[in-house]
Specification:
It is built from two helices and eight strands, in the order H-E-E-E-E-E-E-E-E-H. The chain is of the alpha+beta class. Strand 7 and strand 8 form a beta hairpin.
């Protein structure tokens, strides 16, 4: 399997916090580290990308800290580790590349900020 060349970009974001709007009340945080690939985390990453609101609450999160149930068709379920949080819902996330993860995260951040009427 060829190495995902965008992994270094994602790993470089580890520990960074960015204020993402004019009032300074919404911010994102990146926690990313390289691990030995496992069945649960075949891409060799532990990651958490989060958007927080004015009181520190998580509004958006993409991570692989725990498993979630994913539908596998009629009546079937499987466990997946990559998932996303949006407000109070948790859904499986189909991880493909580090670049896609970053792009999908920022898109959801933009969507939630827009829904909340927050100016960037």
């Amino acid at each position: 399997m060829e190495r995902d060349q965008t992994l270094d970009t994602l790993l470089d974001l580890d520990g960074l916090v960015f204020v993402v709007e004019q009032s300074g009340q919404h911010w994102v945080k990146f926690e990313v580290r390289s691990i030995t690939p496992t069945r649960e985390k075949p891409h060799g990453l532990d990651y958490s990308l989060t958007l927080h609101g004015p009181s520190g609450e998580r509004l958006v999160g993409f991570d692989n800290a725990h498993s979630v149930k994913a539908s596998e068709g009629p009546g079937g379920k499987r466990e997946v580790w990559d998932h996303k949080h949006r407000l109070r819902t948790i859904r499986p996330y189909d991880y493909s590349t580090a670049a896609a993860l970053i792009e999908d995260f920022w898109k959801l951040v933009d969507d939630v900020l827009e829904e909340r009427g927050v100016k960037r």
